[in-house]
Amino acid sequence: MKKAVVLLSGGLDSTVCMSVAASQGYELYPISFNYHQRHSRELNSAKAVAHYYKVKKHLIIETNMDAIGGSALTDSATAVPDGDVERNDIPVTYVPARNLTFLSYALGYAEVTGAERIFIGVNSLDYSGYPDCRPEFIALFQKVADYSTKAAVQDKREIKVETPLINLSKKEIVQLGTKLGAPLKFTTSCYRGGEAACGKCDSCLLRLKGFSEAGLTDPILYDYRGEQ
Amino acid sequence: MKKAVVLLSGGLDSTVCMSVAASQGYELYPISFNYHQRHSRELNSAKAVAHYYKVKKHLIIETNMDAIGGSALTDSATAVPDGDVERNDIPVTYVPARNLTFLSYALGYAEVTGAERIFIGVNSLDYSGYPDCRPEFIALFQKVADYSTKAAVQDKREIKVETPLINLSKKEIVQLGTKLGAPLKFTTSCYRGGEAACGKCDSCLLRLKGFSEAGLTDPILYDYRGEQ
User: Fold this and answer.
1) Residues A191, A196, A197, CA angle at the centre, nearest 5°?
2) pLDDT tens for residues B86-143?
3) Which residues in chain A touch residue B65, judged by CB atoms under 8 angstroms apart?
4) What is the DSSP string of A63-87?
5) Domain assignment of residue B150, given as a range
6) Tell me, what CATH number does B182's domain have?
7) Residue A193: what pLDDT?
8) Which residues 57-116 of B are in CB contact (within 8 Å) with A?
9) Is residue A224 part of a domain?
C-alpha cells in the first residue's frame, strides 16, 4: 500500500488535506508538533482527527521552538491581535521558519517510513500572508529535498510534496472537506485556543468566511461570531 | 555588531567553524541540538566550546528526533559500525534530513536574533558521504531560505549560509582550528560517545587522519589509536 506522511496540525486545512490523502488511497502517517505553541487544544484536535482515520501511528514531535521566539504563537507575552485579513504585512502570528522546519521533519519521516508523498495543507488564497505557504516556497523545498536525503540520492526514491489546497479558497476547502467526510467538528483553528473559538482572530475570520460562503454551518463552538 | 548563528554540535568541524566566525568579528549565537542522539557527550562539548567563546546565549533545541529513527545515531538498537571511509554507500550513521532540519531552526533563530549569517561546518572531502553535507545541498537550502522567512520576503534582509570548511580536507581543518586557537581539546567526534574516543568509527578515523597528516597531536583521549 502506498504511504503518505501528512502534516496534521489539527486545524481545518490540515484535516481536509488528510481527507484528500485518505481519498487517494494512501496509508496515512500523520505527523504533528508540540512546539510549545500557545495552546495545546490544536494538538488534541490533531489526535482526534488521527484517531478518526484509524491510523497505525501518529507521530508527535516535541520541540522547544518557543526558545527561538519571535511569534505570538509561541510567546505568551505577545498578544494575538484581532484579525485583519485585508492588511498587507505579515502578522505577529508568523512563526519563523516553521513550515520549513516541519517539512524537514516530515521528509526524514517519509524517508524512514518509505512514504512516497508528503501532504501539507498550505493555502495561498485565504491565508494570513505567511511567506512559507506560497507555491514558490513549496517548489524550492522540493528541490532541496531532492538533494538532501539518502532516499533521493542513493536509492533514487522520490518523495514528493503534495499541496492539494494551495489554490483553493476557504469556501472550496470547506466544501471539499465536507464532500470527503473530513471530521471538521474535531478541528481547532482559533489562534487563541480557548474552549470556544474567539471568532475574531485572523484564523477564525478566514474560517467563518469559508463556511459562510459555502452556505454551511461550522460545527465547532464559537464564543462570538462577529458578523455571522 | 554583526551577528552570526553557528550550528555547534561540539565536534571538531563545528568548533573550527565557530572559530572562523569569531575570527571574522561576528557576535556568536551558537545553536545546538539535544535530538536524543546516542550520547550526550557531544552536547557537553558544545556547552564547553560555547562557554570558551563567552557567548551571551547558547540556544539548545530539545527534540525527540529519535521518534523518527532510521539512524544508528538515534536508535540504540542499531550498532555503530567500525569505520570504512573508502566505501561508497551512505552509512547507517546518516540521520534522515538532519542538516535540513537543523538549518531550518538556525534560519528561524537568525531571523529572530537579527543575524546576517548562519555558519555550518559541513565538509564534503573527508566526510562520511552524507548527502546533506554537499555544496549543492547548501546552495539549494539558501534558495528556499530566501523564500521562506518574513526577514527575506518582507524586510529584504539577507540571511546567508556560510560553509567555511566545505572544501577543506581534515588536515586543513585541524590546521585552521589550531591557527585560530579553537578549543579542540573540548570537542567530541566519536560516534560511540564513550569517555575516551573509540578510534575506530568513521568519525574517529577521519579525525585521526586529519591530525596525523597535519603533524599534530589530537588533544582528546582515545581508547585505541589504531595505526597512530
Assistant:
1) 35
2) 767 888 888 889 999 999 999 999 999 999 999 999 998 877 788 888 999 999 999 9
3) 61, 105, 108
4) B-GGGT--STTT-TTSPPPPP-TT-
5) 3-188
6) 3.40.50.620
7) 84
8) 59-65, 67-70, 89-90, 94-101, 104-105, 107-109, 111-112
9) no
